[in-house]
Each structure stands twice: as C-alpha cells, then as structure tokens.
What does this fold into?
Amino acid sequence: MITIEHSLYETLRQIADSWALVAMGLAFLVLVAWPFRPGMREKSNEAANMIFKDENDG
It folds into this structure.
C-alpha cells in the first residue's frame, strides 16, 4: 500500500487552484450578467438619473 501524505498547505493550494478558481469565475459571470437581467432597464435608468432629481424642484 502506497500512502502519499500531503501537507495542509499543498491540499489547500490544490483546492484553490481548481475549485476556488471555478467558483470565482462563476461569481464573476453572475455579477457581470446581473444588471442585464429582464426588467432592470427601468431601475437602471432611475438610478442613473437620481443625482439630477432635486426635491425642491417639484
């Protein structure tokens, strides 16, 4: 029986090199696509023009 012992550092590094990279890639894609989901045009336009609205203008 051959046993290969890895240090905790090597194990965590292998996880970070593979699954953490995949998770970060998926998170990036979700965050980039979030503003383009259906129904967001009106909210985006409202947020973009909010700085021009003054409560005293009526």
Remarks:
- Helices lie at 8-33, 40-49.
- The mean pLDDT is 85.
